[in-house]
From TrEMBL:
Record carries keyword Protein biosynthesis: no
Family matches, as InterPro entries: Glyco_trans_11 (IPR002516)
Keyword Transferase: yes
GO MF annotation terms: galactoside 2-alpha-L-fucosyltransferase activity
GO biological process terms held by the UniProt record: carbohydrate metabolic process
EC identifiers of the protein: 2.4.1.-
Top-level taxon: Eukaryota
Official protein name in the record: L-Fucosyltransferase
Length: 334
């Protein structure tokens, strides 16, 4: 009985010490999450407690959705190479469109406003000098970073993240089904139908400033050549032609794009239009990052307008010599 009594006391004492340690750990955990909430830190399922370092990489978002997708994707790739953690603000446009797998801040100023500012070298070319910086301190990388080579090694991860929200996906599917039914209702044979998404952008590229900088817009002849390419390859094609809300762009499309196999899609929310374009079998794009990403997210053949920059212009100098830093190797330029 005595031995039992001594062992019992030892067990009771050990249990008391363990409980005390648990209480301290629990209290410290509560304090950690309380402070995290103050500083606006939120965590996704892939983040472990205590796995946050000072090696932060911050974006400098500007422009439209396509621009943001380039910046986010390229920074993802650079962060991977530099062993850094990409952080964004929860209200950033791209985070409201897609479900992203990065560190998300309620208020980025606690880290990103104090980061070292680094500028890119050329907006539309892959340049090693762009990320030749010290990663031991928080860095904000300012640039358009429009080269698929920055993120080719994280492509699979990005494709899993760039999934449109269900509401947008449903609306986009309705767009595709609406115009497909409109086209096939007057045809006896709708088998093996190939839907080619076409994105036309002109508008702002025709301003005096942009023309002087070196922008070209795709002419009617380019679109006709791209249409003929698919017509020669497939017997049953449907071209769904998208453009923005610009009255000038809509008028140009109505005046210049015609065909029994062509339907002009009424403009929707930008997210819906991009999502609808990704649902097409193949893609034809003119100029702009919106069309670029619509094509990249699609898995079919892409035809692009290769004369987007005037020879010897300031814009042309933003690209690599053969422009393959901007246009993927498996895309076809006309």
């Amino acid at each position: 009985m005595r031995c039992f009594g001594q062992n019992y006391q030892r067990v009771l004492c050990s249990a008391t010490n363990i409980c005390s340690a648990c209480a301290v750990f629990f209290f410290m955990t509560i304090i950690f999450f309380y402070k995290s909430n103050i500083y606006g830190l939120t965590y996704n399922s892939n983040m472990l407690l205590g796995n946050v370092s000072n090696r932060y990489l911050c974006p400098y978002f500007r422009g439209g959705l396509g621009n943001h997708m380039f910046m986010y994707s390229s920074l993802n790739g650079i962060a991977k190479i530099k062993n850094m953690k990409l952080v964004i603000n929860e209200k950033d446009t791209i985070n409201t469109v897609f479900k992203l797998n990065v560190l998300i801040l309620k208020n980025a100023k606690y880290i990103c406003e104090q980061a070292v500012l680094v500028n890119e070298k050329r907006p539309c070319a892959y340049d090693l000098e762009t990320f030749n910086f010290d990663p031991s301190k928080p860095v904000k990388l300012k640039g358009y970073l429009q080269s698929w080579k920055y993120f080719k090694h994280v492509e699979k991860e990005l494709r899993k993240q760039f999934i449109f929200k269900e509401e947008v996906n449903q609306k986009a599917q309705e767009v595709i089904e609406k115009y497909t039914k409109m086209f096939t209702s007057n045809k006896t044979n709708s088998e093996k139908l190939k839907i080619i998404g076409v994105h036309i952008r002109r508008g702002d590229y025709l301003t005096t400033h942009n023309i002087k900088y070196g922008y070209n817009v795709a002419p009617k002849a380019y679109l006709q050549k791209a249409f003929d390419y698919f017509r020669s390859k497939y017997k049953n094609c449907l071209f769904l032609v998208f453009t923005g809300t610009s009255k000038e762009d809509i008028k140009w499309r109505d005046d210049n794009v015609h065909g029994k196999d062509v339907l002009k899609v009424a403009a929707n929310e930008r997210n819906v239009d991009m999502c609808a374009l990704t649902k097409c079998d193949h893609t034809i794009i003119t100029v702009g990052s919106f069309g670029w990403w619509s094509a990249w997210l699609s898995t079919g053949t892409t035809i692009y307008f290769k004369d987007i920059a005037q020879t010897n212009s300031s814009l042309r100098k933003d690209f690599s010599a053969d422009m393959t830093d901007f246009f993927p190797n498996d895309w076809i330029g006309f």
